[in-house]
Amino acid sequence: DEPTGNLDKKNGENLLDYFRKANTTLNQTFVIATHNAQLTNGLNRVLYLEDGMMQAGSYENQTVSG
C-alpha cells in the first residue's frame, strides 16, 4: 500500500525500477496500491478501483499523464 508514499521522487523511482526488474528477471508479481497514477506507467496490468469496486482494467502497458 503506497510503497513510495514516504520516499522522495528519486528513491520512489528506484524502488519501482526494482519492482519492474524483479518482475522481468525473477517472474515475480507485485500488487501495488497507490493514489498516484503516474506510478503505473509501463506496468503490465493496472486495475482502477472506485468506492471499493473495480471500474476498469487493462493488460497492456500503461502510460498515464497528468
Question: How would you summarize this macromolecular structure in one to three sentences?
Answer:
It is built from one helix and two strands.
Q: What are the defining features of this structure?
A:
single chain; 66 residues; two-stranded antiparallel ribbon
- Domain unit count: 1
End-to-end CA span: 21 Å
| Average pLDDT over all residues | 80
Low-pLDDT residue spans: none
Class from secondary-structure proportions: alpha+beta
Explain what this protein looks like in three dimensions.
It contains one helix and two strands; from the N terminus they run H-E-E. The chain has 66 residues and is an alpha+beta fold. It has one domain. It has a two-stranded antiparallel ribbon. Strand 1 and strand 2 (53-58) form a beta hairpin. The relative contact order is 0.17.
Q: Could you give the topology of this structure?
A:
Elements: H1 9-26, E1 46-50, E2 53-58
